[in-house]
Design goal:
The structure is a homodimer.
Chain A: E1 4-9, H1 17-30, E2 36-39, H2 42-46, E3 51-53, H3 54-57, H4 61-68, H5 90-101, E4 104-111, H6 113-128, E5 134-139, H7 155-174, E6 180-186, H8 193-196, E7 211-213, H9 221-232, E8 237-243, H10 254-259, H11 275-287, E9 290-295, H12 299-302, H13 309-327, E10 333-341, E11 346-353, H14 378-384, E12 396-397, E13 400-401
Parallel strand pairs in A: 1-2, 1-4, 4-5, 5-10, 6-8, 6-9, 7-8
Antiparallel strand pairs in A: 2-3, 10-11, 12-13
InterPro entries (chains A, B): ATP_PFK (IPR022953), PFKA (IPR050929), Phosphofructokinase_dom (IPR000023), PKF_sf (IPR035966), PPi-PFK (IPR011404)
Pathway (chains A, B): Carbohydrate degradation; glycolysis; D-glyceraldehyde 3-phosphate and glycerone phosphate from D-glucose: step 3/4
GO molecular function (chains A, B): 6-phosphofructokinase activity; diphosphate-fructose-6-phosphate 1-phosphotransferase activity; metal ion binding
Amino acid sequence: MNGNVIVGQSGGPTSVINSSLVGVFQGAKRAGCGKIYGMRNGLEGLLQERYVELNDCIKNDLDIEILKRTPSSFLGTCRYKLPHYEKDSAVYEKLFAILKKLDIKHFFYIGGNDSMDTIKKLAEYASKINSDITFMGVPKTIDNDLDKTDHTPGYGSAAKYVASAMKEIILDTDTYTTDSITIVEIMGRNAGWLTASAALARTEDCTGPDLIYLPETPFSYDKFVSDILEVKKHKSSAIIALSEGIRNADGQYICETQKGDMKLDVFGHKMLGETALFLSDMVGKDTGMKSRGIVFSTLQRCASHIVSRRDITEAYDAGATAVAAALAGETGKMVIFKRISNDPYKVFTETHDIGDIANVEKTVPKEWITQNGTYVSQEFIDYARPLIIGELTPFMVDGLPRHLTIE
Amino acid sequence: MNGNVIVGQSGGPTSVINSSLVGVFQGAKRAGCGKIYGMRNGLEGLLQERYVELNDCIKNDLDIEILKRTPSSFLGTCRYKLPHYEKDSAVYEKLFAILKKLDIKHFFYIGGNDSMDTIKKLAEYASKINSDITFMGVPKTIDNDLDKTDHTPGYGSAAKYVASAMKEIILDTDTYTTDSITIVEIMGRNAGWLTASAALARTEDCTGPDLIYLPETPFSYDKFVSDILEVKKHKSSAIIALSEGIRNADGQYICETQKGDMKLDVFGHKMLGETALFLSDMVGKDTGMKSRGIVFSTLQRCASHIVSRRDITEAYDAGATAVAAALAGETGKMVIFKRISNDPYKVFTETHDIGDIANVEKTVPKEWITQNGTYVSQEFIDYARPLIIGELTPFMVDGLPRHLTIE
């Protein structure tokens, strides 16, 4: 029999992070692992000895299917910054004592950039103290900003939501003849992958957004206004998608120019938001046109009622691949996707040393952004389109999607 | 052969207004009407002689099915205020000349309160000049605020979206252990029907919002804060649904207290918005807790990717019933729904004199709002639940819902 296993979820929720959890759970079960524990609220909860046995929470095959369709982190999440063990070894000693008490052999953490930093530190510490516990990262982020992997689970579903909602917003806007400016704000601090996915709305039946602004390109308000006026020469409505993380040439967040001193989260990241509303107010006044700001907010990362089936499947694979790799003795690694071809879409999974991934943010390549900095290229579309393909219908009960929760 | 027909769409879009259009189109076609015209952008477009022949735009049965799944107004909409004929008869003369030129016998207008006022005036004028053109209203509004009808097409789908999104937002919020306040702003100027539908999220697998504020109850900021602190005694997150139209005891919109002088639309209505963000900022500062405002904005009225099948069907019926009534000689009326029972859900359609409906806003009954003004009763749930039942899956092409548009 293989040993006991523990799995946690960390960072911002996605629509498919629970599919990765199911991948770990079923992978471990099928491999004959012992107990399969789930950390409540990631490492933060584990340090308080808050955990569950997944067999108690996921009781049957119907639960499995509902859990795949449940957005956000089933086990709860945290934004916990693990200190370096040279600065604070006490927390490591406490954690490894808990792992020992539970007789854990394999540790899995589903998360984004910051979570991969956690896995890296834990694997390093384990090596230092000669622990044989393996530590594996399972990628998850709607931001798609993890390096060394073609893409990350969670991105495809968020992109499908963004592109679908854009199509609906464009229909809603274009139904009026009034001159109008609509500015839609999409998540993405430093990487514009999700904002770029708004371009997928440009289809046979939809013009798509007219302008797209990513954090990769410095943002100038004056150019923004002139870009809009250019669009308005041949169209009554201007539809704009922009990232919450757009910054001016000095590197200052546009929302910061409004808010003054910004709050920081525990990782020291500035807390962004409402750039669209700020710009909508300003551009409305400056052009005299009707303007509206729409902020997708958390809706874009938890809209499991319109997930990408491919994303759900790949999220599951990422979890299952992590288990197989751990059982083969790998540690300090993350599961990555390698793409063989766009059309037909073919990928495979492998693992990669987490040291190359933690704390690196992969941004949209310059050559995928059009020269005037207001759109993305066909290369981006060819890359992103396959990730939003296929649907997984929610289980509807009394008119609403049913979810699985811990009692 | 029955005569020529014209149909228009007016006011804010919904997810099912095109299903009513299909109801009128197929009803008229099956009844052997002559040409079936569609006004581009409602009355405003018609006065500029902008119209289409629907047979040219809806080419086959597949188009019919796609159109039912297309949100917003296929024909385009307007917010046009028709003056009274005693004040400005020229516009009536122009309009009736256009109708005569097209040899129109039956005129259908799909819309809400303001659109029904238009139908009322047109029917009165027709009677005055002894025109035999019939004028029928087809109800449509996510606000559900039309009188004399049990409910309005468009409401059920918007309510399904609101309740589904609330469930997802609650999962997203509760996944953190952090103390937090989430304020979700829902459309509804004077009637809280749509905001109340957030209560439908309270199900076996979801606690639902903790507090719901409707425009029917005067809003006090101090009570709001103490309501939240009461919730926080037994829960780390407080989830609040509130209407964009909440007002203080003096009748002043809460968003107005922030914005100062508000802009008016063509009907003289104040343009609301962003109450949730304003309150979120304020309550965050006053309580020291993390707070987030989410504004559903236009997403709630155009999310045809998660419609209520019952709503789609009833919207179609409303259109078809209007045609049958017009052909039977009725004029100056609106189609209404009468409910026989909640469970099993049974309704029938009939018509009602539009004079009783135009310019009346039906609000949520006082007895359906809980005594402390922070929730709705079981009677409301029993009323609203049947309206969100059933799904109509979008036709997905390349990963996105396909829509029908006029070329």
